[in-house]
Design brief:
By secondary structure, this protein is an all-alpha fold. It contains eight helices and no strands.
Length: 149
């Protein structure tokens, strides 16, 4: 089933922003290669397609795009210090992403975790809000709206 993806390993830390960028693309490719295995392991075919899951992975990576696109408008010494801090942040984000992918591939998460976190993500709880509130008072409708995150 997932013999090549069973052990997701973390590569050595990046030294410069170019290497961090390359490692980010490598992580994306690794995550995309693991999609068929994840779809099979968690039986996700009835919820999402492979391309939708690939788009979800890309959007999760793009959430942190502002880190790599940070403008470095300062002198050369300060730019080098900020650049090294930027690489450390990117390394940390790659470590967290690799750990998350490893947990998913190792079946450390349950199916409903994957569905709730990556498939329904933005519109999970608010989808069933209308059916629950049909006979409720205005007070309860406002209460439900304010307590859904």
């Amino acid at each position: 089933m997932a013999s090549s993806l069973k052990y997701v390993r973390m590569l050595p830390s990046s030294v410069n922003p170019e290497e961090a960028r390359r490692r980010t693309f490598e992580f994306f490719k690794l995550a995309c290669r693991s999609i068929p295995t994840i779809m099979e392991m968690y039986s996700l075919d009835d919820f999402v397609t492979r391309s939708q899951l690939r788009s979800t992975i890309a959007s999760e990576i793009r959430k942190n795009a502002q880190v790599a696109n940070h403008k470095l408008s300062c002198n050369r010494h300060q730019r080098h210090a900020l650049s090294s801090q930027l690489v450390l942040v990117i390394n940390m984000l790659l470590l967290k992403g690799t750990e998350e992918l490893s947990n998913i591939v190792d079946f450390s998460k349950q199916r409903h975790h994957i569905i709730g976190q990556y498939i329904l993500s933005g519109h999970g709880l608010t989808q069933d809000l209308d059916s629950k509130d049909e006979g409720a008072s205005d007070f309860l409708k406002n209460f439900y709206k304010s307590n859904y995150f």
